[in-house]
Design brief:
The structure is a homodimer. By secondary structure, chain A is of the alpha+beta class. Chain A has two domains: 164 residues, Nucleoside Triphosphate Pyrophosphohydrolase; 67 residues, Arc Repressor Mutant, subunit A (Orthogonal Bundle), CATH 1.10.10.10. In chain A, strands 1, 2, 3, 4, 5, 6 and 7 form a seven-stranded mixed β-sheet that branches. The longest helix of chain A is centred in the middle third of the chain and has 18 residues. The first copy, chain A, is elongated, with a radius of gyration of 21 Å. The N and C termini of chain A lie far apart (53 Å). The interface between A and B is medium-sized, with 33 and 33 residues.
Amino acid sequence: MSENQSLSLNPNVSVDCVVFGFDLSGLKVLLIERENPDNTDGKNYQLPGDLIRNDENLDEAAKRILKELTALDNLFLSQFAAFGDPSRVKRENDLEWLRSVRKDPEARVVTVGYFSLIKPENFKPAANSFARKAEWMSIDIVPELAFDHNLILQNGMEALKLKMRTEPVGFELLPEKFTLGQLQNLYETVMGFEIDKRNFRRKITGMDFLKALDEKQQGVAHKPARLYEFNQSAYNHSFSPMFDFQ
Amino acid sequence: MSENQSLSLNPNVSVDCVVFGFDLSGLKVLLIERENPDNTDGKNYQLPGDLIRNDENLDEAAKRILKELTALDNLFLSQFAAFGDPSRVKRENDLEWLRSVRKDPEARVVTVGYFSLIKPENFKPAANSFARKAEWMSIDIVPELAFDHNLILQNGMEALKLKMRTEPVGFELLPEKFTLGQLQNLYETVMGFEIDKRNFRRKITGMDFLKALDEKQQGVAHKPARLYEFNQSAYNHSFSPMFDFQ
């Protein structure tokens, strides 16, 4: 491969990033709005994504593109699926925009989806490159997105839920010392259903990587609850814990 | 896209299939051996895979390519990951072979992995196209494969294990009526570790989609064991059962 080729964009492969943000107000997703002056139907929101370069692997591409479009850096992105419907970039509204930014706007593009779950307060997006806005949007009010990005978002949600059930993700979204109520709220928000409180407590307190502290909440109006912390080292030594709350 | 373009192969995207076979002798994987007369180092075993066509989606490509190379048809293939290391098709041995079969042998190729779990006795492979052999190989003796196919196989194993822990796969690999010993053997073979018998029975009999029958094994030398069957309808009504045996 020539130097020139290796620095070029691959016309047939892209990545798209589904960045979820969790805070006390609920679950959000990071969207960008693209410039598309000719378009009047308003479907210009999309997930941050673009073609990969020929000299980078998929993880590197996801990291670079997210940073270029939204200025977000240093977050953990997990690949979850590839999307390859032959018509996924063929909608007229999308083609119009592609003609304004791509060398080969008619090319078949297979995209690889990545997701991440972060605390929005720690990551302030700033739009750049072809994004004119980059913003957190509540998951409940996401509009019709460009390309097949609603499908990618939906699959990203499923991937996040599976990960929440099979790996201890999400602890970094809570304060270092947290109550079981806060932990339950995180799980309910991401899983999208209420969890029986007794079941939740029975399961979660049986996990030896969750450490009950000799401390209680301070400065709360209600009866203060016991505080817990996550013990990564105990987790590393436990075998495939599962979070199945029903 | 012109008619001609839409029937052409995409130079940058392929699929590779990791087909696992389970029977009483253990876990196997389906490999093909490619023709590569100039090559003497013997690394010509690979997973069945090839470039996608521009008019098909990824699932269709996986199904078509598996059938073309091995004659296997009508099996359920699940996508599990995309592999995009820029050097994944750049090994000299692989390039040699690519030059003999591909229009653009130097092209960057991102591949999408699919896996399946079947009963080998029901699927007799027959080599075709560029495969000169298609055969089941025990997972323990898989040699160094072409491209990054050892990595894809390893990731396919992880995907299979995750699926075994989170979904009721594998029941179709057992007789319609099976003993808990047979079920445990299936799980131990795929998961790759021994499961405590008491833990296994306690968990598995608590699942209401597993139905204990009023029947026992017949014609066995040892004490006949009770037979069970899988109840798909009860499963469909249960919520996210997990198979966490430790």
